[in-house]
Design a protein that fits this description.
29% of the residues lie in helices and 6% in strands. By secondary structure, it is mainly α. The protein has a domain at 6-62. A hairpin with a 2-residue loop joins β1 (6-8) and β2 (11-12).
């Protein structure tokens, strides 16, 4: 989610459906209501009653390899690279 606000290293603010809508509207240039097929989250609903409500979601990576941080441009599109790895 490129519209998520980083609070600290590996800690992000949980965006609302409104944040997603605004991001899509800004980047697509059209009404994203046709694309969004889900509702909002529990914490987004709770913020209607208490703006200080927060939610903690933890995600544990199953692996870590320094190669996944490599953002060097390549001359191969993603599809080609996946097909190459599956040979």
């Amino acid at each position: 989610m490129p519209y998520t606000v980083e609070l600290s290293k590996a800690v992000f603010y949980m965006p609302s459906i409104k944040d997603e809508y605004n991001y899509l509207k800004r980047t697509l240039g059209k009404d994203p209501a046709e694309m969004i097929k889900t509702g909002t989250s529990n914490v987004d609903y709770a913020r209607n009653f208490n703006p200080d409500a927060f939610e903690l979601i933890t995600e544990v990576p199953y692996y870590h390899d320094l190669r996944i941080e490599d953002t060097t441009p390549t001359d191969m599109v993603r599809r080609e690279s996946i097909l190459h790895l599956n040979k």
